[in-house]
Write a structure and sequence with these properties.
The protein contains five helices and nine strands. With about 230 residues, it is α+β, with helices and mostly antiparallel strands. The strands form two sheets. The protein has a six-stranded antiparallel beta barrel. The protein has a two-stranded antiparallel sheet with strand order 1-2.
Length: about 230
C-alpha cells in the first residue's frame, strides 16, 4: 500500500464521512481485506492504516488534520490528484464491504447489497435543533442482517428518530456491528451503539440501539424533516 499521507484515501472514505463509516472501513481493511499482520498483511501497511484511523477517529486530531490539508492545498497549485478521493480509490459499502465505483454517489443505493449509501454532504443540524426532534414510539416489524450474503432475521421496532432507532430481537448484537435494516417506514444501514438484555415470562430478548449510517424514509414529508442532497 502506497502511503500518500492522505488519511481519507488510505481508509477509502470521503473527507466528510461520519465516524461510523470510518470505523467500518477500518475494520474492513484490517480484517476482511487482511491488512492486519496476523492475517497475512505487512507490518508497514498496517502501521499506515492504524496511523490514519488514530487521527480520523479522534475529533480533535481530525479537525487539526483537516486544517492542515486545507492549508496545504491553499498554498500550492491544484492538480488532478486534488480531486474527490473516489477518483483514485473506491469507497467501500459499509454493509457488504464491496468497493463502490465513483458512479455510486452518496445517498444512492449500493448496487451489490441495496443498502442506502451515506449522504456525504450532511444537513447541518445544530445541537439545539436535534434536541427538539422527538423520538417516536413505533411497534413495527423489521428485517435485519449483519452479514453478506444476507441471512435475514426478524425484529420488532421500539422507537425511531431521524438519527437512529431501537428494536427488539432474540440475539445479542455486539457494539459496532453494521446492520442492514428494512421496515415499512424505511431502508437503512446502521451501526449498533448499545444493547440491553431483558427477561420477560422466562424468555430472553435484547434491546438494540442503532445509529444510522444512512437511511431512506419511505415518506420523508411529515415524518420528521425533509432532507435533500
Amino acid at each position: 500500500m502506497k502511503n500518500r499521507r492522505n488519511y481519507y484515501r488510505i481508509l477509502k472514505v470521503q473527507p466528510d464521512a461520519p465516524a461510523e463509516i470510518i470505523q467500518a472501513s477500518y475494520r474492513t481493511l484490517m480484517r476482511e481485506l487482511k491488512i492486519h499482520p496476523d492475517l497475512g498483511g505487512s507490518t508497514s501497511d498496517a502501521s499506515i492504516v492504524n496511523e490514519a484511523y488514530k487521527t480520523l477517529s479522534d475529533p480533535e486530531r481530525r479537525a487539526a488534520y483537516d486544517k492542515k490539508i486545507q492549508a496545504t492545498r491553499f498554498n500550492r497549485t491544484p492538480s488532478a490528484s486534488d480531486s474527490d478521493s473516489t477518483s483514485s480509490d473506491a469507497a467501500i459499502c459499509p454493509f457488504c464491504k464491496k468497493p463502490l465505483t465513483p458512479k455510486a454517489r452518496a445517498g444512492k443505493i449500493c448496487p451489490v447489497c441495496s443498502v442506502p449509501l451515506p449522504f456525504f454532504q450532511q444537513p447541518n443540524l445544530d445541537r439545539e435543533r436535534r434536541r427538539t426532534i422527538a423520538r417516536m414510539k413505533k411497534n413495527d416489524r423489521i428485517v435485519y442482517s449483519y452479514s453478506w450474503p444476507e441471512t435475514p432475521k426478524n425484529g420488532t421496532m421500539i422507537d425511531l428518530s431521524p438519527k437512529g432507532m431501537r428494536f427488539l430481537c432474540s440475539e445479542k448484537l455486539p457494539t459496532g456491528t453494521v446492520l442492514k435494516i428494512t421496515a415499512p417506514l424505511l431502508k437503512a444501514c446502521g451501526v449498533v451503539t448499545n444493547q440491553q438484555q431483558k427477561v420477560e415470562k422466562g424468555k430472553t430478548a435484547h434491546t438494540i440501539g442503532i445509529s444510522f449510517i444512512a437511511v431512506l424514509f419511505e415518506e420523508t414529508k411529515g415524518t420528521f424533516i425533509s432532507v435533500s442532497a
